[in-house]
């Protein structure tokens, strides 16, 4: 059974204007998104700024209200407050944010920041709470003498570890990590990502890993969904996405990954320019006249792509011939 199922999720924001402040238009931030996450899996949600990734994550955790669609946790609906409470959902699903500086209260010491979810969900004595906080600090590699320090006394990487300690405090099953390393230097990014993997192995957590960067997601995720204009346009395994990408938008995101090999820089630049020309020439073919992505077709087991009708037909016929 899937741990999390998101079915046809829509989140539309009203745009108000005019003299009476009426709703004059809508932002279709998330517009029919479906995916599943298995227990222990890392699922990546990738796309450019504004594609609707954060809104999807924020809606799953309950920070935004869904306009339509269903969310299930362990096969049970979690669309109402009552349903969430019944399944301990607010405890089982936690979130890590990009900007650890603004997500950690600057006036609180690390001790009370990490203890916050414990206070909400567990009835511990002050001594038990302190022991648990120290355990959590050890898990994320922070020394015990840091207990009474404030967030500004830590580096960006350490602050992300504090955010992770707070997120794992309630032993969650799923962590939504929204751009957890994009504010960090490259060398620190690798450290935090490896650390997140280690924690996953130790605690058996699933991740919904949100990023604009296919390079970062490559090392973290088993399956990846590519989001564009509020919709998922391609989803598949790591191999499907990195070696057999079919959607023009995925190909463009892949070409944007910077090369670490200096001697290949020129070659990569030329490749990126060629992909960009192809994208500009053909991108409209991938959307219908209303700007919506076409229905997904399964191009190989588990690899689904939204393709223009002509291309989609080829795959459908291949399937029928089988
Ligand atoms: N509360 C809101 N009210 C109105 N529009 C919103 C709101 N939140 C997000 N949006 C709009 O919804 C769209 C999707 O935003 P979202 O933040 O989900 O994208 P994203 O892919 O996560 O990008 P980024 O990485 O920049 O956050 C954007 O056009 C954004 O301006």
From TrEMBL:
PROSITE patterns reported in the protein's UniProt record: ABC_TRANSPORTER_1 (PS00211), ABC_TRANSPORTER_2 (PS50893)
InterPro entries named among the record's database cross-references: AAA+_ATPase, ABC_transp_ATP-bind, ABC_transporter-like_ATP-bd, ABC_transporter-like_CS, P-loop_NTPase
Gene Ontology molecular-function annotations: ATP binding
Entry-linked SMART domains: AAA
Endpoints of the signal sequence: none
Domain ABC transporter, first and last residues per copy: 15-254
Record keywords, A-Z: ATP-binding, Nucleotide-binding, Peptide transport, Protein transport, Transport
Gene3D superfamilies named in the record: P-loop containing nucleotide triphosphate hydrolases
UniProt-listed PANTHER family: TRANSPORT ATP-BINDING PROTEIN
Protein name stated in the entry: ATP-binding cassette domain-containing protein
Native source species: Fructilactobacillus myrtifloralis
Highest classification ranks of the organism: Bacteria, Bacillati, Bacillota, Bacilli, Lactobacillales
